[in-house]
């Protein structure tokens, strides 16, 4: 029988099982997994459960049971909606938002649903010092994601509050982590006085050239556009880690690990090198022909989520038109896209547009990968925050065993 206490209505094990539509033994399994809290009855009549908590778990279970199961994992999110020709951050057109507000402001919108004009992220000196020391110890040939992974680990160790998964604590860590990642990267030149913006700090890590305001605005736009893009492989890795209640630094590390895969993070580097080849050859046709002859995919083209041009690419191309130094690389990219559109209907994606920026501003081939990783860290934090509000360990698919049937003789 249920009882009434000061903390609310309580249910017996049998009543909780009826609400959840499971056997009583399964109720205790929920308790052991941390999905449900129980309280021993002082009179020794068994355990009781908070009715509101049981009903909330039942609602989540019904929603998950109704979710699509056609071979792909479906995850509820209120962050990013992607349509055939555009995408949205919390219901607002993402291109319009990124074109009007700076990266930090777009990140805050994604995290909280509130715009905070003029917001700045600051790295605590002791955390930044630890991250720089760790990154400086790496071999000289280390790549950008290598450095970022090490910087995240060092920042985590330096943060005693990393295990606090409350929204306030996670957001505080995020606002410190992003500038720490940027500040831990080696400078590309002597550096220039900045104004504290992430785009300005990152610029000096990507190129020795002094930035003009228009070029810096393009980099800031790229960061804002790349903040999130639904459940890419790295974002799913972050949500799996957060589902296990890994702290935000560990969740970001999971994302960086997935980003290391050649099918996810290397596209910008490949597009950069292709554009350099086109400029050296004086045209796209011979370069494309060589790619196809070797059986290689032409980078920077096509996206499984868009029927036409990637809207992020369109926004960056439009802004790059205002940069005199971007003219040759922009023309080369459009020639590549034009040739491939005639051949197979492929359109430019954000990697090709980002390559125009990196080539025209004297950045290294891996600069696009760095921009992507720094930008997406904000999105990974947003997804971790969402996942912390879900049932723990919910991302536990069942394996389909295809091995030999037991019993087999002992080897």
Automatic annotation (TrEMBL):
EC number(s) recorded for this UniProt protein = 2.3.3.16
Which pathway is recorded for this entry? Carbohydrate metabolism; tricarboxylic acid cycle
Name of the top EC class for this enzyme? transferase
**Which SUPFAM superfamilies would you find in this protein's record?**
Citrate synthase, Putative DNA-binding domain
Which InterPro entries does the UniProt record give?
Citrate_synth-like_lrg_a-sub (IPR016142), Citrate_synth-like_sm_a-sub (IPR016143), Citrate_synthase (IPR002020), Citrate_synthase_sf (IPR036969), DNA-bd_dom_put_sf (IPR009061), HTH_17 (IPR041657)
Q: Which residues form the Helix-turn-helix domain?
A: 11-60
- Record keywords: Transferase
The domain of life for this entry's organism is Bacteria
The record's section on Pfam families has: Citrate_synt, HTH_17
Q: Establish whether keyword Transferase is in the entry.
A: yes
Please give the family membership noted in the entry. Answer: Belongs to the citrate synthase family.
Q: What is this protein called?
A: citrate synthase (unknown stereospecificity)
The organism encoding this protein is: Streptomyces yangpuensis
């Amino acid at each position: 029988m249920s009882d009434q206490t000061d903390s609310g209505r309580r249910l017996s094990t049998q009543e909780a099982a009826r609400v959840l539509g499971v056997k009583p033994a399964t109720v205790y399994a929920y308790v052991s997994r941390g999905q449900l809290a129980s309280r021993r009855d002082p009179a020794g009549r068994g355990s009781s459960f908070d009715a509101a908590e049981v009903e909330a778990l039942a609602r989540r279970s019904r929603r998950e049971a109704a979710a699509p199961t056609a071979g792909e994992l479906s995850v509820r999110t209120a962050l990013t909606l992607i349509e055939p020709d555009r995408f949205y951050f919390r219901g607002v057109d993402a291109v319009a938002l990124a074109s009007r507000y700076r990266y930090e402001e777009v990140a805050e919108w994604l995290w909280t649903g509130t715009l905070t004009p003029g917001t700045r992220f600051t790295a605590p000196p002791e955390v930044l010092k630890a991250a720089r020391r760790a990154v400086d110890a790496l071999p000289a040939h280390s790549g950008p994601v290598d450095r970022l992974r090490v910087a995240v680990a060092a920042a985590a160790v330096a943060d005693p509050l990393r295990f606090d998964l409350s929204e306030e604590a996670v957001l505080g860590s995020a606002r410190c982590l992003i500038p720490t990642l940027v500040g831990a990267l080696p400078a590309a030149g002597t550096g220039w006085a900045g104004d504290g913006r992430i785009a300005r700090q990152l610029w000096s890590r990507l190129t020795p050239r002094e930035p003009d305001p228009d070029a810096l605005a393009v980099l800031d736009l790229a960061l804002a556009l790349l903040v999130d893009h639904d459940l890419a492989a790295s974002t799913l890795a972050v949500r799996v880690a957060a589902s296990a209640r890994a702290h935000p630094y560990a969740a970001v590390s999971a994302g960086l690990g997935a980003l290391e895969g050649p099918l996810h993070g290397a596209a910008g580097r490949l597009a950069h090198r292709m554009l350099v080849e086109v400029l050296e050859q004086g045209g796209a046709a011979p370069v494309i022909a060589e790619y196809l002859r070797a059986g290689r995919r032409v980078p920077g083209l096509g996206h499984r989520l868009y029927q036409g041009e990637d809207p992020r690419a369109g926004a960056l191309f439009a802004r790059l038109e205002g940069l005199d130094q971007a003219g040759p690389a922009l023309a080369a990219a459009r020639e590549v896209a034009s040739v491939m559109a005639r051949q197979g209907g492929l359109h430019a994606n954000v990697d090709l547009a980002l390559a125009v920026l990196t080539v025209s501003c004297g950045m290294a081939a891996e600069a696009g990968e760095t921009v992507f990783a720094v930008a997406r860290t904000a999105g990974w934090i947003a997804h971790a925050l969402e996942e912390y509000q879900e049932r723990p360990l919910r991302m536990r698919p069942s394996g389909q065993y295809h091995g030999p049937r037991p019993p087999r003789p002992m080897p």
